[in-house]
């Protein structure tokens, strides 16, 4: 089991189902719902019980994430679908999920599988993410302080019984270091889903993507949704930048998708190429965008996700309130407008 899971970490996450299929009943799980009963959840999505900045800060949440949380509360649309008892996530409550297995993807990136009721789906839609939190001590009043971070699962939203997170471990990363110390059987508190881009089949004729590092995760969610739907004719072009060839996450998975689906193309570029490297060299450039992505138009959409330096270079970062902000960088130079670009 463990060896098989580690091999799959290098290949196709869509195949991860085989690593635990038939074995969920022996795994511990926690979902937060009374399974077997139908319960509808509707209304506005609320990220926290606490609504004031004062209360949020009392939880130990850093200012930049406080701003993001408040923005999401303000701008998230009302839910028109209802959750049932077979959705493991809850939009208003922290739910504990138990770690089942881990695997190394690269020298600084790990895959984490969390399990829950094998008859349930996580409750994600394309494209959405989850919030995770971990305790980091207590404040002066003895209340627990938390670090909170959003992550996009790389497992299929339709998968039952488990979800996978791919996380880069940073030396000073509070949450990633917390994940790195987890052992099978430990739990992580999760809330969601948190709406990002609401993807609909054939919503655009051509979608271009620019990703850096773990910014590939929301892109993969959309790519797989398109490729597994025979009625979705959307063309997808991905520019994926990394430090070196060894840092390219899920390259085998992306290559398999590109080889088996003519409507998906991927181009890799790295800062430090190896001797036998045949892809692009350096940051994503204006020339790469012109040659590799659909040109400006009303029937295209460019998605961008990556580290702050890449975002600034390609599209400009989001605004301080985590709204989309002004379009800048090489995408603006290439003639795209804010309506044509979405920043994750």
From TrEMBL:
PROSITE patterns: FAD_FR
Reaction it catalyzes: 2 Fe(III)-[cytochrome b5] + NADH = 2 Fe(II)-[cytochrome b5] + NAD(+) + H(+)
Keyword terms of this UniProt record: FAD, Flavoprotein, Mitochondrion, NAD, Oxidoreductase
SUPFAM superfamilies linked to this entry: Ferredoxin reductase-like, C-terminal NADP-linked domain, Riboflavin synthase domain-like
Chain ranges of the FAD-binding FR-type domain: 92-200
Gene3D superfamilies: Nucleotide-binding domain of ferredoxin-NADP reductase (FNR) module (3.40.50.80), Translation factors (2.40.30.10)
Localization (cell): Mitochondrion
Enzyme Commission number(s): 1.6.2.2
GO molecular function: cytochrome-b5 reductase activity, acting on NADH
Membrane-spanning ranges: none
Amino-acid positions noted as binding FAD in the UniProt annotation, renumbered to this chain: 149-151, 168, 174-176, 217
Family: Belongs to the flavoprotein pyridine nucleotide cytochrome reductase family.
Cofactor(s), names only, from the UniProt record: FAD
Pfam families, sorted: FAD_binding_6 (PF00970), NAD_binding_1 (PF00175)
GO cellular component: mitochondrion
Protein name per the record: NADH-cytochrome b5 reductase
Native species: Carnegiea gigantea
């Amino acid at each position: 089991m463990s060896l098989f899971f580690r091999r799959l970490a290098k290949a196709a996450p869509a195949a991860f189902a085989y690593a635990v299929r038939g074995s969920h009943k022996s795994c511990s799980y926690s979902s937060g719902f009374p399974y077997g009963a139908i319960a509808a959840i509707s209304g506005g999505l609320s990220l926290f019980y606490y609504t004031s900045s004062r209360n949020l800060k009392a939880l130990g949440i850093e200012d930049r994430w406080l701003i993001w949380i408040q923005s999401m509360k303000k701008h998230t649309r009302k839910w028109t679908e209802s959750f049932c008892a077979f959705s493991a996530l809850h939009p208003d409550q922290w739910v504990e999920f138990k770690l089942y297995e881990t695997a190394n993807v690269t020298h600084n990136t790990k895959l984490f599988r969390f399990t829950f009721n094998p008859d349930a789906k996580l409750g994600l839609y394309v494209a959405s993410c989850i919030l995770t939190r971990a305790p980091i001590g207590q404040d002066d009043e003895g209340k627990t302080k938390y670090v909170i971070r959003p992550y996009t699962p790389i497992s299929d939203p339709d998968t039952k019984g488990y979800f996978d997170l791919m996380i880069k471990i940073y030396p000073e990363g509070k949450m990633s270091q917390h994940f790195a110390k987890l052992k099978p059987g430990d739990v992580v508190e999760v809330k969601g889903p948190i709406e990002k881009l609401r993807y609909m089949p054939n919503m655009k004729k051509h979608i271009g993507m620019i990703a850096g590092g773990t910014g590939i995760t929301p892109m993969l969610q959309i790519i797989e949704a398109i490729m597994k739907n025979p009625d979705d004719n959307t063309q997808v072009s991905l520019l994926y930048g990394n430090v070196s060839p060894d840092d390219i996450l899920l390259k085998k998975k992306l290559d398999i998708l590109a080889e088996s689906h003519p409507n998906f193309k991927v181009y890799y570029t790295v800062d430090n190429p190896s001797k036998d490297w045949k892809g692009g060299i350096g940051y994503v450039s204006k020339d790469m965008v012109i040659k590799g992505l659909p040109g400006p138009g009303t029937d295209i959409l460019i998605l961008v996700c990556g580290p702050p330096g890449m975002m600034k270079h390609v599209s400009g970062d989001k605004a301080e309130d985590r709204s989309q902000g002004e379009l800048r960088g090489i995408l603006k130079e290439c003639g795209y407008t804010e309506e044509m670009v979405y920043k994750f």
